[in-house]
Amino acid sequence: MDQLLWRVLPLLTLLISFSLFFYLQSPIIKLPGDECSLLPYSHYWISSKRILTSQGFISGSVEINEGKIVSIVEGYGKKDNSVHQVIDYGDAVVMPGLIDVHVHLDEPGRTDWEGFVTGTQAAAAGGVTTVVDMPLNNHPTTMSKETLELKLEAAEDKIYVDVGFWGGLVPENAQNTSILEGLLDAGVLGLKSFMCPSGIDDFPMTTIEHIKEGLSVLAKYRRPLLVHSEIQQDSESSSELEGNGDPHSYKTYLDTRPPSWEEAAIKELVDATKDTRIGGSLEGAHVHIVHLSDSSASLDLIKEAKRRGDSISIETCPHYLTFSSEEIPDKDTRYKCSPPIRDASNREKLWEALLDGHIDLLSSDHSPTVPKLKLLKEGDFLKAWGGISSLQFDLPVTWSYGKKHGLTLEKLSLLWSQKPAKLAGLESKGAIAVGNHADIVVWQPEVEFDLNDDYPVFIKHPSLSAYMGSRLAGKVLDTFVRGNLVFKDGKHAPAACGVPILAK
Question: What angle do CA 7, 11, 14 make, to 5 degrees?
Answer without folding.
Answer: 145
